[in-house]
Amino acid sequence: MDNFTFYNPVKIVFGKNTIPQLENLMPKTSKVMLLYGGGSIKNNGVYDKVAAALKNHDLIEFGGIEPNPLYETCMKAVAEIKKEKVDFLLAVGGGSVLDATKFIAAAAEYKGDDPWEILLSFGEKVESSMSLGAVLTLPATGSEMNPNSVISRKATSEKLFFGHPSVYPEFSILDPETTYSLPERQVANGIVDAFVHVMEQYMTYPVGASLQDRFAEGIIQTLVEEAPKVRNNPKDYDSRANIMWSATLALNGLIACGVPEDWSTHMIGHELTAFYGIDHAQSLAVVLPALWRNRKDEKNAKLLQFGQRVWSLNGENKDACVDDAIAKTAEFFESVGVKTKLADYGIDKQEAAEKIRDRFKQRGSVFGEHGNISPNVVYNIIMDCQ
Ligand code: NZQ
Ligand code: ZN
Questions:
Q1: Mean pLDDT of 301-320
Q2: Sign, Cα dihedral of 34, 41, 272, 253
Q3: CA nearest 114: which of 97, 106, 101, 169?
Q4: Which is the closest atom of ligand 1 to the Cα of 193?
Q5: Whose atoms come closest to the Cα of 150: which ligand?
C-alpha cells in the first residue's frame, strides 16, 4: 500500500427531516447568500424548508446556476457578494450548484487579476476562500464532501477543475427524501457518475490495499443492487439513502487512500461535455468501456478481480472474464438508462477524436496511472468508443 495522508473536515448531517438543523449549523451573525440552480428546489419543497430554517438569518439569494456551471454566471455572484458584503455561502442543489459555490467562494477572495487562473492552476493559486455549507439534492458528484469543483467557460468551450482545502463545505445536509423529485435521467446520471468515480480510484494495478479494494467493490455492489430498486419504486427511502451515501463515499478521499488513481475517463469526458454539451455521466458511460479495452493489459489484474468479485465471473478463461467484465459494465450503464454509444448523442467520432487529441496536445496533457495515456492514445480510445 502506498503512503497517504487522509483529511476530511466536512460534517455530514444525513437523514429524513434534517434540513431544519440548518438553523444551528449556520453561523448566527453572518450575512448569507443562498445559491441554487434552475428552480427544482422551489418545486420540491426544499426551498421552503431552507427558508424556514433560516428565518432569523440575514439572507440574500442567487439563483440560475446551470448544470455544468458557467464561469460567467459565477462571476455575477462574486460581484453581488462584494456589493452586499456577504460572508457565508449556502449551496442548495446538485453538484453543479455546489461546485459553482466553491468556485465563487475562492474567486471572491482571490487576489490575482483574473479568477480563471484558479482553474488554470488547478487550485494552486488559491490562498483562501469564503466559508460555505451545502444542502445536497442530487447524489452523484461527492462534491458535498470533497474539496473539488468543475467549472465551464462558455466563451472558450472549456471545462476545468480545481481543488483546494479551503473549499471543503463546513457541513453538508443529505436528506434522501429530497431526491424523490429527481427526473429519471438525473437518477441514472448520478449512479453512473458515482460508479465511475469508484473506478477511477480502483481500476489501476494492485498495491496490496485490500480494504480500499473491498470498500470500492462494496460501493459498486451497492449501486448495482439499489439501481433497479429505485427505478421500480422511486419512493424507496432505503434505496435513496443507500445511493446517496454511496455517492458521497465514492469521492470523499477514503477509497483513494494509498492507491494509484487514473482519472483519464473524467478528463476525456469533460472535453466531450465542453465541446458537445452532453451530460457529465453520459460522457463517462461512453468513454469508460473503450478506455478499459485500450488499457486491458495494464489493468488486467484489477479487471479480473472486478469481474470475479462484482460480476461473479468465475470461468477458466481469464481473457474472456476481462472482456465480460467490460461488457457487463456497459450493460449496467444501459440498464440504468445511460446510453453508451457516441452515436446515441449524435457525436461524430472522428471529429471528437481529433478535437480532443489536439486540445490535449496543446495543453501537454498526459493521463493514466503510468502517465502513458498520451493525446494519441486518447485519439485511439475515442475512435474505439462504440
Ligand atoms: O438546476 P435545478 O433546477 O436545481 O435542476 C437540477 C439540474 O437540472 C436537477 N436537480 C437537482 N436536484 C434535483 C433536481 N431536479 C429535481 N429534484 C432534485 N432533487 O438536476 C439537474 C442536474 O443537476 P447537476 O447539479 O448539474 O447534476 P450533478 O449533481 O450530476 O452535477 C454535475 C456537475 O458536477 C461536476 C460535473 O462535471 C458537472 O459539472 N462534477 C463535480 C465533481 C466534484 N465536485 O467532485 C466530480 C464529478 O466528477 C463531476 O465532474
Ligand atoms: Zn464525475
A1: 96
A2: positive
A3: 106
A4: 48
A5: 1
Ligand 1 contact, 164 CB (< 6 A): no
Task: Check if the beta carbon of residue 140 is closer than 8 Å to that of residue 187.
Answer: no
Tell me the C-alpha distance between 297 and 295, whole Å.
Answer: 6
213-270 per-position pLDDT tens digit:
999 999 999 999 999 999 999 999 999 999 999 999 999 999 999 999 999 999 999 9
For the chain, strand residue ranges (E) read: 11-14, 31-35, 58-62, 88-93, 131-136, 148-153, 158-163, 171-174
- C-beta 141 within 6 A of ligand 1: yes
Q: Is there an atom of ligand 1 within 6 Å of 142 CB?
A: yes
Taking Cα atoms as reference points, which of 303, 274, 276, 277 lies closest to residue 288?
Answer: 303
Confidence grade of residue 371 (pLDDT, cut at 50, 70, 90): very high
Among candidate residues 347, 40, 340, the one with its CA nearest the CA of residue 188: 340
Strand order in the sheet with 88-93: 11-14, 171-174, 131-136, 88-93, 31-35, 58-62
DSSP 8-state code for residue 53:
H
Residue 38's φ and ψ, nearest 5 degrees, are -85, 0
Amino acid found at 138 = L
Distance (angstroms) between ligand 2 centre and the Cα of 191 equals 10
Q: Is 73 in the pocket of ligand 1 (CB under 6 A)?
A: no
SS3 37: coil
Backbone angles phi, psi at 313, to 5 degrees: -95, 105
pLDDT in tens, 107-124: 999 999 999 999 999 999
- Beta carbons of 196 and 288 less than 8 angstroms apart: yes
Q: What phi and psi values does residue 6 have, to the nearest 5 degrees?
A: -115, 125
Q: Are strands 148-153 and 158-163 parallel, antiparallel or unpaired?
A: antiparallel
Grid coordinates representing 18 are 434534517
353 in Cβ contact with 290 (< 8 Å): no
